Amino acid sequence: MRIREMCPSDLDGVMAIEEASFPTPWSRRMFLEDFPRDFSDTLVAAGADDEVLGYAVCWTIAGESHLLNLAVNSARRRQGIGRALLSECIRRAARAGASVIFLEVRAGNEAAQRLYRSMGFAFRGIRKGYYTDAGGEDAIILDREVRESDATG
User: Fold this and answer.
1) Is residue 93 a contact partner of residue 146, using CB atoms and an 8 Å limit?
2) Quick one: what percent of the chain has pLDDT higher than 90?
3) Is 116 a catalytic residue?
4) Which end of the chain has fewer CB within 10 Å, C or N?
5) CB atoms < 10 A from the CB of 84, how many?
6) What sign does the CA torsion over 103, 78, 91, 43 have?
7) Looking at residue 97, what DSSP letter applies?
8) What is the DSSP letter of 26?
9) Is 64 marked active-site?
10) Which one from 116, 130, 131, 137 is the annotated catalytic residue?
11) At what angle do helices 110-118 and 81-95 cross, to 10 degrees?
12) What does the buried/exposed string (b/e) look like for 99-138 if buried means 16 or more CB atoms within 10 Å of the residue's CB?
């Protein structure tokens, strides 16, 4: 597996994972709009045959990084793919000069919360009713300091 920049030819694989992972998936257009942005890192974890195993989208603006989206093919979860994508997002945030990286995660997504906490993220708050697709499920806000040493990780 290798982590690389997402490209338009990855979108079929990305969309298959996105649609299987989220009740309200991003559209193909939303991913395409992120490609040309200087502040956006759009990444895929690619298998040996260049199969899309997972992806992440992270923005770094004004010293802060925001993990907007991360998902892994359900058949490939618990194999370190999400951890590798998150590590690369943190590395890129550090290289871009961010001092913090934050995210929102569904209150009911305990597996994702475990991953984030194992990577040093801490609870910062709750966005009540953030996910309108699931009857107003809350989002847990997590963040983590980005250190200079993360740039080489």
Assistant:
1) yes
2) 84
3) yes
4) C
5) 19
6) negative
7) T
8) P
9) no
10) 116
11) 50
12) eebbbbbbbeeeebbebbeebebeeeeeeeebbeeeeebb
